[in-house]
Specification:
heterodimer; A: 246 residues; mainly alpha; 77% helix; B: 218 residues; 9 helices; elongated
C-alpha cells in the first residue's frame, strides 16, 4: 500500500474498508473505558467533604461538556475540509457529528441542573457558562434543522458548512458577550493542562478514563453514522439506477 | 448599484411591499408588554430597554424572508446573479434596503415607544443610539439567514431558528448599552463592542451571504 496521505481516506470505499478494521476495536475500547471510568468514579472514589456524593456527577458532566464544545470544533474542521477540498466523507462526518454534539450539550445541561439543584439551590441560573451552552445547543439545532430541510445533498452540505463557519464566529462572540452580560456562578475549569486549578487526584484519574471513554464513544458513533450515511446514499443511487433500467 | 437600490426601495415602499408592517408589529409588542407584566411604571422603566430591543429584533425578523423570496420566485434573482454586478454588492444593497425600510423606522420611532414604556429620560439617547448602531447588523445577519433559506419552501420558521442564535451577541451588547445608560451607569464599552460587531458583520457577512446564494441558485 505504501505511504498514503490522509486524503486517501476521503475516498468513501477506502473509508469503509479502513473503518471496517478498527471500528470494532474503537467500540470495545469505548465500552471498556466508559465502564471503567464510570464504575471507578461512582463506586470507588470517596465522597467530597462538602458536596457529598453529588460530586460524582463530574464523571458525566465534564466529559459531556468537553465533547459538546469539541464536537462543534470538529464540525468546523470537517466543514472547512468540505469547502476547500470537497470530500464527501468530510461533509458526512460533520452531519453525523451534529446530533451527537446536541445530545452531549443536553447531557451537560441536564447533569449540571441535577447537580446545581442541591449545590446552588437552583436548577438553572443565567450564568455565562450555562447560558453559552444553551446558545450552543440552539446552534446545533439550527445546523441539524438546515441539514434536514434541504433535499439536495450537496447543496445541504455547502450551506451547512458555511452556516457552521459563520456560526462558530458568532458562538465565540456570544461566549464573550455573555461574560460581559452577567457574573458567573459556575466554578472555574475542573481540568487544566498547567495544573493551576485542579480537582484532587482521587477524582482526577477516573475522570481522565471517563473522558477517554466519551471521546472513543464519539469516534465510534461518528464512524458508524458516517458509514450508514455512505451506504444509504449508495442504496439510493442503486435504487434509482434500477428504476431507470427497469 | 444605484439602479438596484432604487428598484428595491420602490418595490418595498409601494403597495404589497409590506413597508411599515414592521413598525406596526413593533408598536403591538410594545403595547402588549404592559398587559403581560402589569402597568407598574417602575417595573416598566426597568425592563423598557430590553423590551424595545426584543421588539425591534422581532420586527426585523418578520420581514427577513421577503428580502430574497419574491426575487427568487419570479426569477429576477437569477438575472441579478448573472449581472455584471458582483453578488456581494447585490447582497449588501438588499441588506441596506432592508435596514432603511425596517431598521431605520424602528430607530426613529423608538423615542415615542420609550414614552409608552416609561423609559427613564437619561436612557433615550443611548436607546436610540444603540438601536441605530445595532439594527444594521440585524439586517446584515438577517440577509445571510434569508440567503441560506431562499430555496426552501416555508422556510420562515427555519429562518428564525437559524438567525436568532446569531442575534444573541448583538442583542446582549445593544440591550446592555441601553440598560446601563438608563440606569445612569457607564455604557461606553458596550457601545464600542456593538459598533465593532456591526462593522465586522457589514464587512464580512456579505461574502458569506453571496456564497450561500450562489449555492442556492446553482
Amino acid at each position: 500500500m505504501g505511504l498514503s496521505s490522509l486524503w486517501t481516506y476521503a475516498n468513501p470505499k477506502k473509508f469503509i474498508e479502513t473503518t471496517d478494521k478498527f471500528l470494532p476495536w474503537v467500540t470495545i475500547l469505548a465500552v471498556v473505558c466508559l465502564s471503567t471510568g464510570l464504575i471507578w468514579g461512582f463506586f470507588f472514589t470517596p465522597d467530597d467533604y462538602r458536596q457529598g456524593s453529588t460530586v460524582k456527577i463530574i464523571y458525566i458532566h465534564v466529559p459531556a461538556a468537553m465533547m459538546a464544545v469539541n464536537i462543534w470544533a470538529m464540525m468546523l474542521v470537517t466543514s472547512l475540509v468540505w469547502i476547500v477540498r470537497r470530500h464527501h466523507v468530510s461533509a458526512l462526518a460533520a452531519r453525523a457529528a451534529a446530533p451527537i454534539g446536541a445530545v452531549m450539550t443536553v447531557i451537560a445541561l441536564l447533569t449540571g441542573a441535577i447537580w446545581g439543584q442541591p449545590m446552588w439551590g437552583t436548577w438553572w441560573a443565567w450564568d455565562p457558562r450555562l447560558t453559552s451552552f444553551l446558545i450552543l445547543f440552539l446552534f446545533y439545532l439550527g445546523y441539524i434543522a438546515l441539514w434536514s430541510a434541504i433535499e439536495n445533498d450537496d447543496t445541504a452540505a455547502d450551506l451547512t458548512a458555511i452556516l457552521c463557519l459563520v456560526g462558530s464566529v458568532f458562538a465565540i462572540l456570544s461566549r464573550y458577550a455573555v461574560n460581559f452580560w452577567n457574573q458567573g456562578l459556575h466554578q472555574g475549569a475542573s481540568l487544566s493542562l498547567d495544573k493551576e486549578e485542579h480537582v484532587a487526584d482521587v477524582f482526577y484519574y477516573p475522570l481522565l478514563v471517563s473522558i477517554a471513554g466519551f471521546v472513543l464513544l464519539f469516534i465510534a458513533l461518528v464512524l458508524l453514522r458516517t458509514r450508514t450515511e455512505i451506504r444509504a446514499r449508495r442504496m439510493r443511487v442503486l435504487l434509482a439506477r434500477e428504476r431507470l433500467g427497469g | 448599484m444605484i439602479a438596484l437600490f432604487i428598484r428595491d426601495m420602490r418595490l418595498a415602499v409601494r403597495a404589497g411591499g409590506g413597508f411599515g408592517l414592521g413598525l406596526a408589529f413593533f408598536l403591538i409588542v410594545t403595547v402588549l408588554v404592559p398587559f403581560g407584566v402589569g402597568p407598574d411604571n417602575a417595573l416598566l422603566a426597568r425592563i423598557a430597554p430590553g423590551i424595545l430591543w426584543i421588539g425591534a429584533l422581532l420586527a426585523c425578523l418578520l420581514s427577513l424572508d421577503r428580502i430574497f423570496a419574491l426575487d427568487y420566485e419570479d426569477g429576477s434573482l437569477d438575472l441579478l446573479a448573472t449581472a455584471p454586478l458582483p453578488l456581494e454588492a447585490i447582497v449588501s444593497i438588499k441588506a441596506l434596503v432592508h435596514w432603511i425600510t425596517t431598521g431605520l423606522p424602528l430607530v426613529l420611532a423608538t423615542p415615542l415607544f420609550g414614552l409608552l414604556l416609561n423609559l427613564p429620560v437619561e436612557g433615550y439617547g443611548a436607546m436610540v443610539l444603540s438601536l441605530f448602531l445595532g439594527t444594521p447588523a440585524l439586517s446584515v445577519v438577517g440577509t445571510f439567514g434569508a440567503a441560506l433559506t431562499v430555496g426552501i419552501k416555508r422556510g420562515g420558521l427555519l429562518l428564525s431558528l437559524l438567525v436568532l442564535p446569531l442575534y444573541v451577541p448583538i442583542l446582549i451588547f445593544g440591550a446592555e448599552m441601553a440598560r446601563r445608560a438608563a440606569e445612569g451607569l457607564e455604557s461606553g464599552a458596550a457601545m464600542l463592542m456593538l459598533a465593532g460587531i456591526t462593522c465586522g458583520t457589514i464587512a464580512l457577512l456579505p461574502f458569506a451571504s453571496a456564497a450561500v446564494l450562489r449555492v442556492n441558485l446553482r
